[in-house]
Amino acid sequence: MTAVEARVQRHIRALAARSPHRVRVGPFTLRHRPDWPSPYANYAIPDDGAEPSAADVRALIEAFEARDRLPRCEFLPECAPSVERALRAAGFAPESRAPVMVCAPGTLRAPPPVPGLTIGTPEGEAGLRWVAEIQHEAYGRSGAVGEGAIAAPRLTLAEGGVVALAVFGTPGVPAGSGACTPPAEGLSELIGLGVVPALRRRGIGAAVTAHLAAGALRAGADAVWLEPADDGAARLYAALGFVAAGEKVAYARSTGRAPALP
Fold first, then answer.
1. What's the rounded Cα separation, in Å, for the pair 253 and 151?
2. DSSP secondary structure code for residue 16 in this structure
3. Could you check whether the bond before residue 171 is cis, i.e. omega within 30 degrees of 0?
4. 3-state secondary structure of 38
5. For burial by CB atoms within 10 Å, which of 36, 114, 166, 206 has the most?
6. Is residue 63 scored above 50 in pLDDT?
7. What is the pLDDT of residues 69-96, one digit of tens each?
8. Rounded to 10 degrees, what is the CA torsion of 5, 77, 160, 138?
9. Across-strand partners of 226?
10. pLDDT band at 257, cuts 50/70/90?
11. Between helices 204-218 and 231-239, what is the axis angle to 10°?
12. Of 72, 9, 79, 71, nearest to 51 (Cα)?
């Protein structure tokens, strides 16, 4: 486990610990959002070096089910090597395995300017809704945008994080959005980066990423980290000065109720 991996894991756990609805279950901290059922807002993080028993994992599943949430964990496996095996034994399956990329003030590089693009902080409820609607469309989600998705950027701003809304052309058309979490353990995570499909491949994603990272560093973080969705995204982030510094996994369990203990 590298020092950077340890810091990222502590950052994830620190944000969960700030949640007013957090729950401790054995060696896990469960982050719960009663107003937003998204699995990306409801997940558990193990302690460093955690060695959960079958009873611990069963209790974790039951805690998720009691809150009508998908049992899900996010963590850096190097920080808790025994957790993957325990989750698999209880019916969890790997959902994602992505590199962790980190950028510090000395490595952040500005991308080429995008003519006609304006990036700023969303104003009022209309701006927050635009942020959520861009992310909703960018990630191909179905149905209407929920109030929890709109509340998320509002909470990020209130807690000292950074939220960006990019508009393109005249009059301004919503083009991209994203956020950086409030600094914790000296780090900020860049999350929710999205560009509407019709305006992709114009440099908007790179511009929003650089804007957010610079804003988080000004807000007190000494580094910004993120998870690229794919190799193309990783290349984009590398061009901006982000470097690979570890691996993060997510596990989810969607097969029935909690298993009986042997």
1. 26
2. H
3. yes
4. coil
5. 166
6. yes
7. 999 999 999 999 999 999 999 999 999 9
8. 120
9. 101
10. low
11. 60
12. 79
Among 248, 237, 6, smallest CA distance to 111 is for 237
In which band, very low, low, confident or very high, does the pLDDT at 255 lie, cut at 50, 70 and 90? Answer: low
End-to-end CA distance of the chain: 33
SS3 36: coil
Residue 38: count of CB within 10 angstroms of its CB: 15
Report the DSSP pairing between strands 243-252 and 28-31.
Answer: unpaired
Residue type, 85: R
Q: What is the DSSP string of 186-245?
A: TEEEEEEEEE-GGG-SSSHHHHHHHHHHHHHHHTT-SEEEE--SSHHHHHHHHHTT-EEE
Are 243 and 101 contacting, i.e. CB atoms less than 8 angstroms apart? yes
pTM of the model: 0.90
Characterise 203 by phi-psi region: left (phi > 0), alpha (psi -120 to 50), beta (else): left
* SS3 at position 72: strand
Pair of tokens at residue 209? 């990423």
Amino acid (1-letter code) at residue 186: G
| Spatial separation of the C-alpha atoms in residues 114 and 93, rounded to whole Å | 41
HEC states along 166-191?
EEECCCCEEEEEEEECCCECCEEEEE
CA 57 – CA 230 distance, rounded (Å): 30
Structural domains of the chain, ranges and CATH numbers in brackets? 3-100+248-252 (3.40.630.30), 117-241 (3.40.630.30)
Which tokens hold the place of 240? Answer: 């901006």
Q: From residue 75, how far is each of 55, 98, 158 by CA, in Å? A: 20, 11, 26
> Quick one: which of 10, 165, 26 has its CA closest to 100?
10
Classify residue 139 as exposed, middle or buried by CB count within 10 Å of its CB (0-12, 13-18, 19+): exposed
